[in-house]
Amino acid sequence: xxxxxxxxxxxxxxxxxxxxxxxxxxxxxxxxxxxxxxxxxxxxxxxxxxxxxxxxxxxxxxxxxxxxxxxxxxxxxxxxxxxxxxxxxxxxxxxxxxxxxxxxxxxxxxxxxxxxxxxxxxxxxxxxxxxxxxxxxxxxxxxxxxxxxxxxxxxxxxxxxxxxxxxxxxxxxxxxxxxxxxxxxxxxxxxxxxxxxxxxxxxxxxxxxxxxxxxxxxxxxxxxxxxxxxxxxxxxxxxxxxxxxxxxxxxxxxxxxxxxxxxxxxxxxxxxxxxxxxxxxxxxxxxxxxxxxxxxxxxxxxxxxxxxxxxxxxxxxxxxxxxxxxxxxxxxxxxxxxxxxxxxxxxxxxxxxxxxxxxxxx
Length: 362
Ligand SMILES: [Mn+2]
Known about the structure:
Layout: E1 2-7, H1 17-33, E2 38-41, H2 49-63, E3 71-74, E4 97-99, E5 106-110, E6 113-117, E7 140-145, E8 147-148, E9 165-166, H3 169-174, E10 178-182, E11 188-192, E12 195-199, E13 215-222, E14 225-233, E15 240-247, E16 268-277, H4 280-294, E17 300-310, H5 318-333, H6 337-358
Parallel strand pairs: 1-2, 2-3, 3-4, 6-7, 7-10, 8-9, 10-12, 15-16, 16-17
Antiparallel strand pairs: 1-13, 5-6, 11-12, 13-14
Helix pairs in contact: 5-6
The chain binds manganese (II) ion.
Manganese (II) ion binds next to loops.
């Protein structure tokens, strides 16, 4: 039985160096704990070319902790192309990690696995001309970075503005039983051309909206067959958490509605304050209090006041008071997240209308 771990889109960067390396260390630890033979890094290991150049030495040191028997292969993703100019990718030395830059693919035979590592390119349209050797006894894995053709229609959110299509026909041509994919930051697996095509999702929270727990994929092969694949969570990656806080007549009350214990120290938390407030100064004070209380407990805290609008005299308006009293009763009995979302939206709309009415512009 052979084991591999497939990770993608770690985006190691100078701007979040400590966090990136904490996640990388956990990945190495997962390789140790599961005694894997092969670590696959499916692109965007670094956030940009300059990040790769600056942080490769530190990455080499961390990668030295890989179990002795474990081989590791990384392909460049579109992010290693960012700000690259004419500089060569091949000269980046990742130590224990083999950096696959051969075109159109680089082939590795690693403990009985036949690996086709395809570095990122702006188009894979020429795949029909690739010379693919006849399959042998070993299971084949193909590693690529881009978006599976057809995924635009599956309702999956794009992680990038630029999209490079991978035709799953290429998996069939290679005869791969597993496609280790990167680029889409949410996890997604499907069976295509007799191949299990998998995006483990980004190994770290790279930007807002990446709500799910971050994970890598553990693979087991027996003979030529993929016998198991399983998600392993990366706890040091934390989560992205978005929370709307409706501000009422007494703005300070919001603070009692925040339970800081639900957040993990690795989380990226975004609080969206909504409603009406008497003055900008009150709004700023509320932001400061929230920052003071939550800021030190989480990796990153952002407080959005776009939907918290100042309206002097608002707390004395009968219309606003009546609306909020009624709304609070409904809110206390809201059962589902869907109902809560609807109530929050209704509240934003109603308070904006009240503000416009008071200011005389309907
Ligand atoms: Mn990425």
